[in-house]
Amino acid sequence: MFSKWKIDKVFLFWTVTLMVAGFFIFSSASLGLLARSGSQYSSVTFSQTILGLFLGTIALIITSNLDYKIWKKTAFWFLAVAIILNILVLIPHIGFEHGGARRWFVFGGVSIQPAEILKLAFVVYFSAFVSGIKEKIKTFKYGFLPLVILFIILGGLLLKQPDTDNFMMIVCSGMAIFLSAGGRWKYIFIVLATAIIAVGSLAVSRPYVMQRITTFFNPNQNAQGSGYQIQQSLIAIGSGGMFGRGFGQSVQKFNFLPEPIGDSIFAVEAEEFGFLGASLLVLLYVVFAIRGLKIASKVPDSFGRLLVVGIVIMIVAQAFVNIGAMLGVLPLSGITLPFVSHGGTSLFITLLEVGIILSISKSQKQTR
């Protein structure tokens, strides 16, 4: 199954642990959906288990046995296809619209979100590009300017959907790759300053962004409106206490928490497993990140090293943004919790990414 088992078995262990934990947490949280809409429940569970878990595991096995350098050879075309898919999703009668956002293709009742493909395509392409220019990464013309151009192109596509959260993950992974390759910090500060200005502009032009910001600073201001989700999330987390109500015993998931299988799933987990269980889940992501970055530090070629950094930072940053939003320490976002939240496409791509990391781990320098 895994070629001669030269892969990093420790990283695989922590990945499988996250997968198993995520499956049980999702299974419990989805009971709240069953109580609300039985017909939707079957579609959601099919997408999560078949498209996400089953096909994602197959993708993990396949990519872990592929030579990872094939991603470098096809990086440009991969990004081009991902961009085309994200253009097509914006076209009426092709892309599916829900809740004011047009982000999905729907085939036979199963939704596919091309933004997830775009995130990986960006990491692959930018890693390949940076590994080719080497020391030129420190210059404005060859290092920073291409990154800005990519951010503008991909940001334009994602903000049109609108999908601010996934664009934010692209920015995080892009800056991580840029710095890991030797890019200058002063350019990162320029990106951060620009991001602050951009968020201010979006807040003025898009009411939902302003609502997220005002809710973050004062969640009690509109407890039955924009502040409802964070209020219910904090109630769920607080009611879990130290050890939780027990598996399957969440009350909030039935009638109170919006999106209990989506971006609110951490609150369900904290209610059922308490502070101890929530802390263990956070620790799993930390260990996943540490082991992933350790693999990157031992990879001899720059493309493999940067690709691991980009993937690990993208997955873990997404996890911490989701958890931070549910705890009220970050503004609310609609971003999902990797390995746990509903999203067949997201889980499939995440497991495929893990397979790429495992393939790269075979080239580690064998020093412990």
Q: In words, what does this structure look like?
A:
- With 368 residues, the protein is mostly helical.
- The chain has one domain (3-77, 118-361).
- Helix content is 70%, strand content 4%.
- It is built from 14 helices and three strands.
- It has helices at residues 9-36, 38-65, 69-73, 75-88, 114-133, 140-160, 164-180, 185-205, 207-217, 228-239, 252-255, 265-298, 302-327, 344-361, and strands at residues 96-98, 101-107, 110-112.
- Strand 1 (96-98) and strand 2 form a beta hairpin.
- It is globular and about 55 Å long.
- The model has no long low-confidence stretch (mean pLDDT 86).
- Secondary structure class reads mainly alpha
Number of helices: 14
| Spans where pLDDT lies below 50 across 5 or more residues | none
- Taking all Cα atoms into account, the compactness measure Rg is 20 Å
- How much strand? under 5%
* pLDDT averaged residue by residue: 86
